[in-house]
Write a sequence for this structure.
């Protein structure tokens, strides 16, 4: 029975779903550049937060989520670069390699940013007695993370408004 179904499916034409953006090639290039700009701004905020060298950065449960946040950013750039070279009509494979990759990596970055914020707040609350001089750096680090989270949410609004796909 399994073999018969396999033969029946093998004889069918390989028909893919296509996702067509509601724009022309010029507008799509503009959207692709904005996509890359969002990624660069998020990378700048991630690096800026790392350059603060606050006392919590020497703690493993603060350091590792910070380092792990670079993985979704790298994954985002792979998708954004792939989207830059695609046409406005994307096959399922192109959509998965470009826009879907961007969307999922931003979700992961949002989760990691929220985790970093919670852990940093926990660190500040636990070490508030010894953080007299370094409290400003810790709060500045939290501000970077909050701005990064706000930019990620702004990207999701941009994505939903401009890059929603419509199957043909």
């Amino acid at each position: 029975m399994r073999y018969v179904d396999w033969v029946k499916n093998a004889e069918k034409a390989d028909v893919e779903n296509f996702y067509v953006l509601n724009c022309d090639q010029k507008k799509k290039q503009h959207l692709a550049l904005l996509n890359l700009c969002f990624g660069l701004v998020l990378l700048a905020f991630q690096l800026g937060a790392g350059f603060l060298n606050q006392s919590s950065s020497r703690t493993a449960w603060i350091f590792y989520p910070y380092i792990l946040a670079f993985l979704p950013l790298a994954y985002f750039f792979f998708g954004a670069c792939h989207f830059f070279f695609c046409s406005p009509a994307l096959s399922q494979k192109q959509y998965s390699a470009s826009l879907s990759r961007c969307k999922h990596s931003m979700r992961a970055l949002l989760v990691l940013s929220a985790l970093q914020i919670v852990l940093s707040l926990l660190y500040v609350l636990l070490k508030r007695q010894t953080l007299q001089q370094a409290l400003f750096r810790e709060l500045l680090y939290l501000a970077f993370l909050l701005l990064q989270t706000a930019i990620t949410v702004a990207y999701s609004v941009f994505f939903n408004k401009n890059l929603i796909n419509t199957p043909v």
